Amino acid sequence: MAPSNFHANPFPGIRSYEINENHHFFGRELQVRELIRKLAKTRFLAIVGSSGCGKSSLIKAGLIPELFKAQQENLPGSWKLVIFRPAEDPIGNLAKALAEGSRDYETTESVLRSGADGLVKAEQEILSAGEAGFIYIDQFEELFRFKRSGAYARTIAEAGNFIDLLINAIQQSKIPIYIVLSMRTDFLDECTEFRGLSET
After folding, report:
1. Which runs of E-coded beta strand occur in 20-66?
2. pLDDT reading at 18 higher than 70
3. How far are the Cα atoms of 26, 48, 61, 92, 192 from residue 22, in angstroms, in the given order?
4. Is the pLDDT confidence value at 146 over 70?
5. How far is residue 23 from each of residues 18, 61, 66, 181, measured CA to CA in Å?
6. Residue 3 confidence (pLDDT) above 60
7. What is the mean pLDDT of residues 37-44?
8. What gap in Å lies between CA 151 and CA 28, rounded to an integer?
9. Distance, CA of 119 to CA of 165 (rounded, Å)
10. Cβ contact 122:98 at 8 Å
């Protein structure tokens, strides 16, 4: 039998590239360098674009591998990576992502719900010395769909508490926490409902 000439298709189709597929991801090096420069300055990035335009791929196969492979100017050299989607339980899903491999998520969720500085407290317990937290929130617009899904007063309060955790984490200076989110353009106006989010 002749040897197979089959080669894996480097294009993932409609799904996004994953971190370990970064060797197939190219052509956006200038964008990645600009994202790194902005991240070093603000510790926060919001990647906003239409559905399917490559937001998640840019972050997972572009930004994260480049950031983690070598020391970048004005950025930490060691990272604790957390990736999650808000879905219908944003604080609970953040807790599960933070706690993965280290502790039970109920304890982490309790810390997160203790106040606006809950994310800072949770990261303080998780991060090793010299390590920075890198949190990527994929499909951030799920937060706004979640907000609409149940009893309005409860869900808008939950969404507001989640956003307060993020804003407090990037504004404080006790520990290095970097937050990146991707969101569909058609949900951008929703950000104005939450104080501090659109200004961030």
Report:
1. 44-49
2. no
3. 8, 21, 4, 29, 34
4. no
5. 10, 8, 11, 22
6. no
7. 94
8. 42
9. 6
10. yes
3-class state of residue 99 by DSSP: helix
pLDDT of residue 107: 94
Phi, psi (degrees; rounded to nearest 5) at 27:
95, -5
The residue among 32 and 180 whose pLDDT is bigger is 180
In the chain, count H helices and then E strands.
8, 4
Q: What is the pLDDT of residues 51-97, one digit of tens each?
A: 766 788 888 877 888 888 767 777 888 899 999 999 889 999 999 99
Asked if the 26-193 domain carries CATH number 2.60.40, the reply is no
Asked if residues 47 and 59 have their Cβ atoms less than 8 Å apart, the reply is yes
Which of the four pLDDT bands, split at 50, 70 and 90, describes residue 200? low
Integer angstrom CA distances of residue 44 from 19, 53, 120, 149: 20, 21, 15, 27
Strand order, beta sheet including 79-84: 44-49, 177-184, 132-137, 79-84
Domain boundaries, the chain: 26-193
C-alpha separations of 119 from 52, 62, 84, 94, 181 in Å:
30, 26, 14, 9, 16
The owner of tokens 């807790």 is: 95
